[in-house]
Amino acid sequence: MSRIGRLPIEVPAGVTVSVDGQLVSVKGPKGELTLTVAKPIEVKLEDAQVLVTRPDDERASRSLHGLTRTLIHNQIIGVTQGYSKGLEIVGTGYRVVQKGTSVEFALGFSHPVLIEPPAGIVLTVEGNTKLMVSGIDKQAVGEVAANIRKIRKPEPYKGKGVRYAGEIVRRKAGKSGK
């Protein structure tokens, strides 16, 4: 049995979870999220706990068991606390500026790069080299942060570019003279 999948999910006060067949809806103080559960997995609501079960021990059922439990748990954390991911801009002349809800990057290109956040994502600028991506959906927050990082990845020689907060960039030695 999956060690993660068999753990019950505690539903905190202020959060309502509703199960309608394969559709799980989680509503909390920060918003509402829904998840469509894959077919062999069953989700039940008992007392103040959500239980995820699987009907058999086939490979597909086993792999989806822990995944489904983790996705529902992530939704509950998202509607209560939310998720955030920090980004740092490193490089001479590289900066970020807040323009309403969107942000504008100066990353050494011949033009500024404007990023519009998708629905449910908030971009906040701290200083001119730090950016915080936050929202209630863990996957969406991570994807937006990854797409912003992809604009100018940290390069290995000087370390210039957009990196996650706390990310360590492996540096290479440059050309050596004779």
TrEMBL record:
Annotated protein name in UniProt: Large ribosomal subunit protein uL6
PANTHER family named among the record's database cross-references: 60S/50S RIBOSOMAL PROTEIN L6/L9, LARGE RIBOSOMAL SUBUNIT PROTEIN UL6M
Lineage, top ranks: Bacteria, Bacillati, Actinomycetota, Actinomycetes, Micrococcales
Key words of the record: Ribonucleoprotein, Ribosomal protein, RNA-binding, rRNA-binding
GO cellular component: ribosome
Annotated source species: Leifsonia kafniensis
Domain Large ribosomal subunit protein uL6 alpha-beta, residue spans: 11-82, 90-164
InterPro entries on file: Ribosomal_uL6-like, Ribosomal_uL6-like_a/b-dom_sf, Ribosomal_uL6_a/b-dom, Ribosomal_uL6_bac-type, Ribosomal_uL6_CS
Biological role: This protein binds to the 23S rRNA, and is important in its secondary structure. It is located near the subunit interface in the base of the L7/L12 stalk, and near the tRNA binding site of the peptidyltransferase center.
Quaternary structure note: Part of the 50S ribosomal subunit.
Family: Belongs to the universal ribosomal protein uL6 family.
Pfam families: Ribosomal_L6
